[in-house]
Amino acid sequence: MAAAEQRLTELGSLRSLSALNEKLSLLRLLGRLDEAWDIANEALRQARFSGDREQGLAARIRRAQVQQYQGKLVPALTDLTICAEEAHGHEWTALEATALHNRGRVLFDQREYREALADFKNAVVLWEKSGASMDQLESSLVAIGVAEAFLGK
């Protein structure tokens, strides 16, 4: 945790999108969710301002992750569903997989294990389609095993 705090200090007042995304991850890791929410919104505004829709969508997914950690499952689920649909429409396979994996986590938190399992499985298919590494696939594969255990499969 000290290393995360030190890195936050190093990032200081940097406002590039990559710095904001790193701050967001560190704040989430440290459990400083209100600060993470503020940074997530700032990153989303910056991504939208850049005009890069793909970056904007990635920022929305990261913001929904913060909502999940805050226990705001319904808005997180709504945002992730919209993100998955938008990514699908643009054929942004990796972003669609990310949105589905994260939506699966929210559904799991809501004890909707069957729906979560479907999202995790779809995420794996999309990760494979996008040529993801085994490291990228691993979290979805583990999530499948956990969801199946909760369903008694």
From TrEMBL:
The name on file for this protein is Uncharacterized protein
What the entry lists under SUPFAM superfamilies is as follows: TPR-like (SSF48452)
* UniProt keyword terms in alphabetical order: TPR repeat
Question: Entry's Pfam families?
Answer: TPR_10 (PF13374)
Start-end of each TPR repeat: 97-130
Which superkingdom? Answer: Bacteria
Transmembrane spans:
none
Q: Which Gene3D superfamilies match?
A: Tetratricopeptide repeat domain
